[in-house]
Q: What sequence folds into this?
C-alpha cells in the first residue's frame, strides 16, 4: 500500500482529498502546515507528498527546502497545489514532480497522483559501469538513488550492449579501469552504442589520473576519484540545469 502525506491548511479540503485517496487504496497521513508535515515524516516513509504553498507556521516553499538534498531535489515525490498561476514562478528552479491549480477536479488529482507514484525515478536512468558489490560502487549507487535516479549497474561491454538495447540511459557514469578492455576503448564503444546526447562521465578509484585519456576518447567529463559519489551527482545535476536553461531559452 502506497503512503501519501497531504499538507494543506484547509481542513475541509484535506478531509475531502483524504477520503478519495483512501477509496483508491492509499494510506493517507495529513498535516495542516509544513511543521506538522516534517513531524509526520519522522514517523513513516512516504511515497508522495501533496503540498500546498500558502500555509501558516511553515509554508510550502520552506517545507520543500527542508526536505531537499544539497542538490536541490526533494527526497520524496511532491505534487504542488497552488491557488495562483504565478506561484509556479517560485518553483521554476525546483524539480517538483507536478503542479495543480486550485480549484481542481478530484478525478484530475487522482490521475496526477497515480502518474507521479508510477514515475518514481524523477532524476532519470543512470548506467553505472563498474564492478557489482564493490564498496565504492555501492556508495556511488546509493548516492545517486538518494537523488532519485534509477541506477543500473553494468559489468562489461556485452552487458552494456544488452541493457542499452532495452533501456536508453539519460547518463552514463563509468569507472575508467575496466576488466574486458582499456578504458579509452570502452569509452569509444559506449559512445558508439548510444545515441547522441547521452553524457558519459568518467571516474577512477585507482588513484591515477585518466582525465586526458578519457576526454580524448569522447567522455564528456572526468571527475577523478568520486569518494561517496557526490562528484558524480554534482556533474549530472549540472548537465540537467544547463539543459533546462537551454529549453527555457528556446521557449
A:
Amino acid at each position: 500500500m502506497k503512503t501519501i502525506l497531504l499538507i494543506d491548511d484547509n481542513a475541509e479540503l484535506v478531509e475531502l482529498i483524504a477520503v478519495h485517496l483512501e477509496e483508491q487504496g492509499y494510506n493517507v497521513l495529513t498535516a495542516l502546515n509544513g511543521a506538522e508535515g516534517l513531524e509526520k515524516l519522522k514517523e513513516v516513509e512516504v511515497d508522495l507528498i501533496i503540498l500546498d504553498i500558502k500555509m501558516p507556521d511553515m509554508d510550502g516553499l520552506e517545507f520543500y527546502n527542508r526536505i531537499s538534498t544539497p542538490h536541490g531535489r526533494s527526497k520524496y515525490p511532491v505534487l504542488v497545489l497552488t491557488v495562483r498561476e504565478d506561484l509556479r514562478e517560485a518553483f521554476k528552479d525546483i524539480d517538483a514532480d507536478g503542479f495543480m491549480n486550485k480549484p481542481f477536479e478530484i478525478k484530475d488529482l487522482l490521475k496526477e497522483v497515480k502518474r507521479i507514484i508510477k514515475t518514481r525515478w524523477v532524476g532519470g536512468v543512470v548506467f553505472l559501469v563498474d564492478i557489482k558489490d564493490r564498496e565504492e560502487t555501492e556508495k556511488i549507487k546509493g548516492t545517486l538513488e538518494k537523488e532519485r535516479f534509477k541506477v543500473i549497474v553494468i559489468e562489461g561491454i556485452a552487458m552494456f550492449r544488452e541493457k542499452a538495447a532495452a533501456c536508453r540511459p539519460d547518463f552514463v557514469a563509468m569507472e575508467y579501469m575496466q576488466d574486458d578492455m582499456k578504458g579509452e576503448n570502452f569509452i569509444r564503444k559506449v559512445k558508439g552504442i548510444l545515441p547522441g546526447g547521452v553524457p558519459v562521465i568518467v571516474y577512477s578509484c585507482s588513484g591515477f589520473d585518466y582525465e586526458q585519456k578519457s576526454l580524448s576518447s569522447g567522455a564528456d567529463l572526468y571527475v577523478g576519484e568520486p569518494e561517496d559519489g557526490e562528484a558524480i551527482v554534482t556533474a549530472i545535476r549540472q548537465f540537467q540545469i544547463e539543459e533546462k536553461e537551454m529549453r527555457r531559452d528556446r521557449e
In short: The mean pLDDT is 89. The first helix runs from residue 11 to 23. The radius of gyration is 21 Å.
